[in-house]
Amino acid sequence: MDEPMRRGGRPRRSSAEVLADAAAELFLEQGYARTTVDQIAVRAGVSRATFFNYFTAKSDVLWLDLDAAVASLPELLAASTEPSAVRAVEEALLAAARAHDPERVPWAIAQAEVMGIGPELVASVATRVTAQHATVAAFVAGRTGDHPAALWPQTVSGAMLGAAGAAFGVWVADGVAREPLVHYVAAALSPVAAGLDEV
Known about the structure:
CATH architecture: Orthogonal Bundle
Helix content: 55-70%
Strand content: under 5%
Number of strands: 0
Number of helices: 11
Order of helices and strands: HHHHHHHHHHH
Distance between the termini: 43 Å
Number of domains: 1
Shape: elongated
Structural class: mainly alpha
């Protein structure tokens, strides 16, 4: 169901977005380690239980936008009619980048040093990267008849997600001068996909 529209034509922010923004404010003010879930809930004007309706851990609020961007990846891959598995992965990653709200920049990357985000951030990133890698490798394996742990599915997944991840990092770092995310992802994926598709 679509979010209700404001008079300016923009959808209202979801409760998850309100919580993520409240958390980012607190992380910037007092640091990640000193901020509690209860404080985030109070700042957002919701209950602690509401927080856990949307997030399983405090670190999850850092990745709301990235999680949303890649949530459709399995569906995009499954629906692809592109004969080349490499090009199908490229198309799916571009579609995910295209759907990302340009105004939602992950604070965890943009302000990590100021927020004092440490090992928990690294662990939460690793969990997400591992899940994405497994999804792409399984898709490629399904197309080629290989096992997902075989060299080719692992290579395609690692190379394509690595390029997309690098593009995402540069997009964040470019600040107010940044162009749409899909431009960065397309520029990063194009030579990688071309090289892999020739193999």
